[in-house]
Amino acid sequence: MRPADIEDLVVPGPPAVRGDLLLAAVSRPDLDADRSHSTLRRVSLAGGGDVPWTYGPRDSSPVISPDGRWVAFLRAAEEGGPQLYVMPAEGGEARKLTTFALGAEEPAWAPDSQRLACTARVPEAGRYGTEDADGRTPESLAEAPRRITRFDYRFDDLGFLRDRPKRLFVLDVFGEGEPEPLSPADYDVKSPVWAPDGERVVVVVPQEYDRVETLSNDLVAFPAGGGEPELLASCPGSADHPVFGPDGTLYFTGTSHTDGVVVAANCGLYAVVAGAEPRRLTDVETADVESAAGTAVPLGDEILVAVRNRGAVELRAVPASATDAKLDSLRVLHGGQVAVHGFAADGDTVVVVAATVETPGEVVVLGADGPRVLTDYAKTLRDKGIRRVEELNTTAPDGYPVHGWLVLPEGDGPHPVLRVVHGGPFAQQEWAFFDEAQVYASAGYAVVVGNPRGSAGYGQAHGRAIVQDLGTVDVDDVLALLDKALERPDIDSSRVGIMGGSYGGFMTGWIAAKHPERFRAAWSERAVNAWDSFAGSSDIGYFFAAGYVGSDPEELRKRSPLTYAADVRIPFAVVHSEHDWRCPLEQAQRQFVALRQAGVDTEFLLFPGESHELTRSGRPRHRVQRFAAVLDWWSRRLS
Predict the structure, then answer these.
(1) What is the reported pLDDT for 535?
(2) CB 365 within 8 A of CB 371
(3) Contact of 460 with 261, CB cutoff 8 Å
(4) What burial letters (b/e) apply to 157-191, b meaning 16+ CB within 10 Å?
(5) Residues 524, 526, 532, 537, Cα dihedral to 10°
C-alpha cells in the first residue's frame, strides 16, 4: 500500500436492516476533492454484492422506519453540516427535512413511523455564521468574546461547546414548518431513542442537568410534544446508546466511576427498570463493551453487544437476566480474529460490519451455517498487495504476558524495523487492517504493534496497571514485544526506529530519553510531552492528567518526556497539528525547543488546520503528505 492508496480505503459504516433492505453508508477518502466521500449502498442479503442507493457526496447514518416504508439519513452538501433527509425504502427522491445552521445528528424513528427525533447544535446569535440580535452577520463585525466559567468548554475536532448546545428536536416527517427544540439550552443531550409508547424521547444528559462539570450521565425522558423532562436513571459514570427491550427495560452502555478512578474503565452493559438503580449486566473486570460499535440490540432474551477481547472486537450476547456476567460466559455470535465496528438485527437476521487484517470492513450476515461475507470492499487493496500479519506473544521481564503483531514486508530481509505504539492509552491495537502498518511494510519496514499494559481489551486490571505509574511496566511491554520480533533472522536489529501518536507519542519521547541506545531515531506525533501544561491546555486535561499522573507538581514533572529532553541522543521528529486541542500545540513547541537547546538533531513538522484526528480523519491530502514525510524520515534515518 502506497500513501496515495488511501483512496482505496473503502469503509462501510454501521448497517441498517429491515426485512430484505440492508443499507450501509460507505466512505472513502477523495484526494481530488480533498475530503471524504460517502454514499448509501444497498447490500443484497440473498446473493451478496451491493448497488448505489444514494450518490452523496456525503451521505451517512441510515435508519429504516419501523414499518419498513421509509429511510431517514444525513446528507451534507459540499459546504455546511449534514441535514436530515427521508426517502421511500423502495428508492426515489430524497426530501430534505431540516435546515439547521450547524447540521443535524442522530436521527431516530418514532414507533408510528411518522415522526423523527434528532439532535442539532443551536448556535448563539451572531456566531457560526448566524445573525446577531441586530441582524448583522459575523462577516460584517468582529465576533464577541466568549465568557468561560467552566473546564469543559471545548472539545477536540469539534470546537467550542457552550455557545452551541446540542438540543433535542422532534419532526413530523410529513408535516410543515420548522421544529422547535424540546430540550433547553442549558446542557447538551445525545443518543435519542423513543419510548415504546411513542410519547417520550429518552436522551443522555450530563448528571444533575450539567449544573457543574461532570463525567457522569443521567437518562431522562422528554415528552414528544414538549414539557419538562423526567429523570429515569442516574448512571454510575458515563453512559451512551440507550435502547428499549421488548418488555420495556431500558438498556445502555457505560462506565462506572464509583471507585473514584475516571480513567481506564471497562465499559459495561446496564439495565434500568422503573424505580430501580441501573444494574450492570456485564462483569467490570473481564467484559469491556466497545461502545463505538453502536447501540446494543435486544434479541429475544439476550442483548447483543460488541466487546473488546485481546485485539478482537467480538459480537456477543448478554442474557437479559445477567448480573456481572464474565466475558467467557457470553455467547459468541461473531468472534476470533475480527473487529466488529457495527451491527444490527431484524428478527432472525443479524448483520455486522467487520474488519480483519485484510480488510478495513465488510458487511457480513450471521446465520446457522456461520458468517457469510456479502461485500468485497477490500478487493482493490488486495489486488495491490496486503502485507502479511503475524501474531506475537512474549513475556515482560516480570513474567507478564505481552501480545501483539508483526507486519512483514516482502523479501528475505533483514528488514529495518519500526516499533509503532498506539495512543490512548486505554485503547487497543486490533485484529484489523491498519493502514499505517501496511504503508510502512510496503516501503520495506517490518512493523511491530501491540497492546502493552495500559491498553484495553485484556481486563480492567491490565488497563489500570499504569494509572499513577506511567512509563514503567508499559515501557517493559513495548520493548519486550520488540525484542520478540528481533529474534527473527529476517529483522535487522541494528536499524530500529520508534514512533507513535498521542500516548504513543508520549512513549516515544519517554523511551527515546530513557533507552536511546535501542533506536536509531524517533518520530513523536501529537504527543503529551509536559503534564503540567497539558493539565490546563488540553480539552480533557483537567481530569485526564490527574487521573493518570496526579496533581503533585513534582510528579507531573517526573512523568513528562520534556523533563528528559537533554537525555535524547538520537534524531527526533516532533509532529503536530495546528488545531489539536487534545494534545495542544504547545506540547510540541516546548518539546522541539527543549530538544534543539539540548543539541538534538530535531525536526518539527506542523500540519495547518488539522486536529488530533489527522491520521484517521484529516484531509486526505494531508494524510498522504504525512505518509510521505514519515517515509522520508525513516529513509534518511534507517538506511
Answers:
(1) 98
(2) yes
(3) no
(4) bebbbbbbbbbbbbbebeeeeebebbbeeebbbbb
(5) 160
List, for residues 34-72, the tens digit of each pLDDT value: 999 999 999 999 999 999 999 989 999 999 999 999 999
Strands (E), 57-135: 58-64, 70-76, 83-88, 95-96, 104-109, 115-121
The backbone torsions φ and ψ at residue 91, rounded to the nearest 5 degrees and listed phi first, read 100, 165
- The SS3 of residue 83 is strand
Long-range CB contacts (within 8 A, 24+) of 595-600: 595/565, 595/568, 598/565, 598/566, 598/568, 600/565, 600/568, 600/569, 600/570, 600/571, 600/572
Burial state string for 86-123 with b = 16 or more CB within 10 A and e = fewer than 16:
bbebeeeebeebbebebbbbbbbbbbeebbbbbbbbbb
Mean pLDDT of 150-174: 97
Could you please report the per-residue DSSP string of 387-426? --EEEEEEE-TTS-EEEEEEE--SSS-PEEEEEEE-S-SS
In 3D, which of 152, 158, 147 has the Cα closest to residue 538?
152
pLDDT at 383 over 90: yes
φ/ψ region of 174 (left if φ > 0, alpha if ψ in -120 to 50, else beta) reads alpha
List pLDDT tens digits, range 547-585: 999 999 999 999 999 999 999 999 999 999 999 999 999
- Say what percent of the chain tops pLDDT 70: 100
Residue type, 73: F
Q: Which SS3 state, helix, strand or coil, does residue 555 take?
A: helix
Helix, strand, or coil here: 106? strand
Residues 100-112: what's their mean pLDDT? 97
605: region left, alpha or beta (phi > 0 left; psi from -120 to 50 alpha):
beta
Average pLDDT, integer, range 468-482: 98
DSSP state of 539: S
| Among candidate residues 294, 310, 302, the one with its CA nearest the CA of residue 351 | 294
Confidence category of residue 466, pLDDT binned at 50, 70, 90? very high
Cβ-proximal residues to 369 (8 Å cutoff; 6+ apart), any chain: none
Would residue 257 be called left, alpha or beta, if left means φ above 0 and alpha means ψ between -120 and 50 degrees? Answer: alpha
What are the cell numbers at 19?
426485512
Three-class SS state of 434: coil
pLDDT at 79 (0 to 100): 82
Q: How far apart are CA 628 and CA 439, in angstroms?
A: 10
pLDDT at 140 > cutoff 80: no
The CA distances from residue 633 to 520, 596, 637, in Å, are 11, 17, 6
d(CA 92, CA 90): 7
Element holding 494 (H helix, E strand): strand 491-501
User: Which residues lie closer than 8 Å to 430 by C-beta, 6 or more apart?
Assistant: 311, 312, 313, 339, 355
Length of the chain: 639
3-class DSSP string for 3-51: HHHHHHCCEECCCEEECCEEEEEEEEEECCCCEEEEEEEEECCCCCCEE
Are residues 303 and 269 in contact, defined by beta-carbon separation less than 8 angstroms?
Answer: yes
Contact 507, 474 (CB under 8 A): yes
Q: 293 φ, ψ to 5°? A: -75, -10
Q: What is the pTM of this model?
A: 0.96
**Set of cell numbers at residue 545:** 492528567
d(Cα 453, Cα 396) in Å, to the nearest integer? Answer: 10
d(CA 355, CA 342): 10
> What secondary structure does DSSP assign to 279-334, as a single string?
EE-B-TTT-EE-GGG---EEETTEEEEEEEETTEEEEEEEETT-SSB-GGGSEEEE
The x, y and z cell numbers of residue 383, run together, are: 489486488
Predicted pLDDT at 144? 87
Mean pLDDT of the chain: 97
Distances from the Cα of 303 to the Cα of 272, 609, 613, angstroms: 13, 42, 32
